[in-house]
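Entry 14. Ran structure prediction on the chain below.
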Amino acid sequence: MKITLQAIQFVLKRSFLASPLLFIVYAGIQILLALTSILNIFIFKEIIDTANGLNSLFGLTLLMLISLRVALDIIDRVSSRFAEYIWFVWDTKQIFVNYTAFLKKLASFDFANFENPETHDLIWRAFNRFQWHIKYYLDTVMKFFSKLVELSASLIIFAFASPLSAFLIILTNVVSIYIRTVLGAQSFNIYKADSEIVRKFDYLHGMAVNRETLMELKQFQGFDFLKERLFALYRSFTGRQMRQYKKQWIWLTLVDMLPIGAIGIFLVTIMGKLQTGEMSTGVFVFLFTNIFVFSGALRQLSGDLGSLSSDGHFIHDAINFFAVKQTITFPTVSTSQKEELRKVLRNPTITLENVSFSY
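Output, structure tokens:
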């Protein structure tokens, strides 16, 4: 979890530096879109109760409620399109800012850094992060927080209807999220262990399409050897990945059953209240529809959290890259020392001391 929080903080900071205004506007639109789904089902509940002869919460007529529902749909659609435009503009800015920072940091490395195989591997991985990983990680962070707002509002509705059911729903989903986090960390460890093998595979793959190496492969009949090496490397890093994915599939299927059971208990509870007349048809439809909003938000939130956890390790490559220190340090020269040095350079002298000759 610590690695995930550090990755989120790093990406949010880099994204904010790219364009503070666009960052704030985009985040605000995402929160607005998250709340519209709850408002929509609430207005739908008011429409049903008003159609059945009950008074609406704010005394609105049926026509006014339907008009409000249409207005929310228009706001949702316009906001979504505007957010896409802002995202495109921000993406253009962040690429320039992040690549500038990457190259500036790379230029500060000394030769010993470049000769270190681990540092060289880190540079390769960090460069790939700046190409596309940061912006997709930010997109996941934004979706995560917007769905968290939507999920929180949905849980408050559950708590008013049945506090016990709300507690069970939270508990079962915490267990699911924890298991996803653990599995995400295991996936990264496999990737990191195989990074050198993947680079070798990329190098051999480049030989198969490079004009100069193709001529040599043809001349020395090296295609069979190249094929064997490519397939051996490919099987090496995909074998462990396949075993990990099989393990994830089994565990994730099991943990997904827990929230379904908690929601089933909630449905039985509100069904009993409807049959005893403790709630209106509109309230029942509101709570029932809230389940779909909650399930959709939770599914998105769980997936986003799993991505944040697993991809957070990849973002840490960029964090570690900026944390690399020079192996050679130079002493700090004071202003007076600089002035003395300038005087010597303006009037250079050569002095030979303790010189002796022998024949």
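The mean pLDDT is 77. Will compare against last week's run tomorrow.
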